[in-house]
Amino acid sequence: MNIHKLYKASCHEAGVRFVEKSSFQSILSACIPHLKVASPRDDVFETCEKLRKQIMDSVSE
Questions:
Q1: Which of 1, 14, 59, 60 counts the highest number of beta carbons within 10 A?
Q2: For the residues 47-54, what does the mean pLDDT come to?
Q3: Which domain range does residue 24 map to?
Q4: What pLDDT score does 13 carry?
Q5: Within 10 Å of residue 16's Cβ, how many Cβ atoms?
Q6: How many separate domains does the chain show?
Q7: Among candidates 29, 56, 14, 15, which has minimal Cα distance to 3?
C-alpha cells in the first residue's frame, strides 16, 4: 500500500482530492488485473516459511 501513500501525498501537494484505500484498490484491480496486493500471509519471508513447514512436518521434538 506504499503506492497509495505516494498517490495520497502527490494529491496533497497538487491540492486535489484523493480516493481512499478501498477505492484505490478497486480502481487498480480494474486497470491492472494481473497486479495483486499481497495479504500478510502471502508476504512471508521464504526462510520463515521453510521453518514453519519444518515445524509442521515434524513428528517428534
A1: 1
A2: 83
A3: 2-57
A4: 96
A5: 8
A6: 1
A7: 29
